[in-house]
Amino acid sequence: MKVSNTGPLIVLYETGLLSILHQMYDEVLVPLAVYNEISRVEEGVKLLDANPWIRVVEVKGKELVRVLLTFLDEGEAEAITLAKESNLPILLDERKGRRIAKSLGVRVEGTLGLLVRAKRRGLVSSVRELIYVETNRFPFFLCPSLIYVSIFSSLLLCYDFISLFSKILY
């Protein structure tokens, strides 16, 4: 199970990749504010109606939401609060929201990270190909600097693991 903010759901839906999220998680929770943001347009209503595995949940921690609203929009504030109170990871792409969620101890994953994990699980054959095809079809999907930063971070994580593993062996 995972909590999601508005942006990743819309991007995955618009690019035809929402099924990847469903393959990775049987259920995705969204707070009422995210539901309201998505439902503002007809396509958003279709997204929610066609995907009953995306479940709307009311946030209990109204005080945390009020505090977060000084920094974030309502959807992000409620999504972070829901992830925190449910002890679930969150799918969130916005930099400020990610930073705040992490500071609250919430595990954060972005759309690109989700696609990389889908590749590792064999659900997609090539993240690079998906990025190339979808950025040409949906120009605001991923900016090149985010792609490079994600690749570099993955390499550093891999390097750290190899370095740690070699210290254990030798």
Descriptive account of the structure:
The chain is built from ten helices and five strands. With 170 residues, the protein is of the alpha/beta class. The protein has a five-stranded parallel sheet. Strand 4, helix 7 and strand 5 form a beta-alpha-beta unit. Helix 1 crosses helix 2, helix 3 packs antiparallel against helix 6 and helix 5 packs across helix 6. The termini are far apart. The relative contact order is 0.14.
User: What share of residues is helical?
Assistant: 55-70%
Q: What is the general shape?
A: globular
Mean of residue pLDDT? 81
CA-based gyration radius? 17 Å
Predict the CATH topology of the domain at 2-113: Rossmann fold
List the helices and strands and how they pair.
Elements: E1 2-4, H1 6-14, H2 18-24, E2 28-31, H3 32-38, H4 42-49, E3 54-57, H5 62-68, H6 74-86, E4 90-91, H7 95-103, E5 108-109, H8 111-120, H9 127-137, H10 144-169
Parallel strand pairs: 1-2, 1-4, 2-3, 4-5
Helix pairs in contact: 1-2, 3-6, 5-6
